[in-house]
Amino acid sequence: KGNHWGYGKENGPDVWHKNYPVALGSRQSPIDIPHQVSHDPSLGPIVLDYDHCTSINICNNGHSVVVNFDDTDDRSVIHGGPLENPYRLSQFHFHWGGKGCDGSEHTVAGNSYASELHLVHWNAVKYKLFDHAAAAPDGLAVVGIFLETGDDHRWLHTITDAMYMVKYKGSATDFKGFNPKCLLPSSLHYWTYLGSLTTPPLHESVTWILLKEPIAVSEKQLGKFRLLQFTGEEEDQRLRMENNFRPPQPLKGRRIRSSN
Ligand SMILES: COc1ccc(C[C@@]2(O)NC(=S)NC2=O)c(OC)c1
Ligand SMILES: [Zn+2]
Questions:
Q1: Could you point out which of 8, 144, 232, 246 has its C-alpha 20 to 30 Å from the C-alpha of 108?
Q2: Which of 199, 203, 246 to mutate to test the pocket of ligand 1 (most atoms within 8 A of CB)?
Q3: How remote is the CA of residue 117 from the centroid of ligand 2, in Å?
């Protein structure tokens, strides 16, 4: 159907503004995190209560690989830090580059990482449905975790091993019993700022919480992400899923705060 948005030359981030004018808005994501960020002593620690989280499935939505969670109650939430309410874990997904190329969305002092994990949470205290929250200025809280290449990640293989089951757009498979706590770095020190979704509809609804410490994953594990395809099984075009990241957007005067 028509020129659906993507990451190609014709439908990529540079032209998203044509169908989604908010792409040129005042609180777009991702951004570059500069060297000097103001430290805010009033910022408390971020707390991730995932002990009773319930993963449901892993799917290929044609833009990324997504693990979905049961978010019908407050069994897995984040709270604290800059957040005034608990936010429910809904899904997590990744952004990555091509072979030997970086693919994070946020950059730190101009430097990219190999990949970026987004843990997506929504404000179910104020909003009845995820889609309502996704369009509200205080509706979402996304924890961003940088992935850098190094040793094998001990737990990431459970995700990369499932990828052959969701190679094509529109495919999904059961993925139960996965707790994303195993993907966290040792330090929860973070940067926080107000931003947006990083794909269309680009709603300016995200309180970003970016962890400063990256996690290490191996080139081999990252290579398995690139076995995924943007395209469906029935499509004759076989487009490898890679470089599914939006580049940094103008800060437009926003304040970025740093936890301790
Ligand atoms: C309608 O609600 C949406 C739509 C897309 C995404 C995914 C994404 O655009 N947002 C981030 S963050 N990374 C992405 O790729 C979303 O996630 C919060 C919520
Ligand atoms: Zn994302």
A1: 8
A2: 199
A3: 7
d(CA 30, CA 112): 12
Catalytic site positions: 63
Q: Whose CA is nearest to atom 3 of ligand 1?
A: 134
Query: With contact defined as beta carbons under 8 Å apart, do 72 and 97 qualify?
Result: no
Which one of 120, 208, 210, 243 would you pick to mutate in the ligand 1 pocket, going by the greatest count of ligand atoms within 8 A of its CB? 120
CA-based nearest residue to 53, from 36, 76, 87: 76
- Give the ligand at the shortest distance from the Cα of 118: 2
ipTM over 0.90: yes
Contact 25, 17 (CB under 8 A): no
pLDDT digits (tens, 9 = 90+) for 70-94: 999 999 999 999 999 999 999 999 9
CA–centroid distance, residue 199 to ligand 2 (Å): 7
In sequence order, which ranges of 41-187 are alpha helices (DSSP H)? 130-133, 157-160
Above 80 in pLDDT, residue 2?
A: no
Give one DSSP letter per residue of 58-97, joined into a string: EEE-SSSEEEEE--SSTTSEEEETT-SS-EEEEEEEEEE-
The rounded Cα 180 to chain-centroid distance in angstroms is 13
Report residue 260's pLDDT band, with 50, 70 and 90 as the boundaries.
confident
Neighbours of 222 (CB within 10 A): 23
82 Rama sector, left if φ>0, alpha if ψ -120 to 50, beta otherwise: alpha
Atom of ligand 1 nearest to the CA of 200: 9
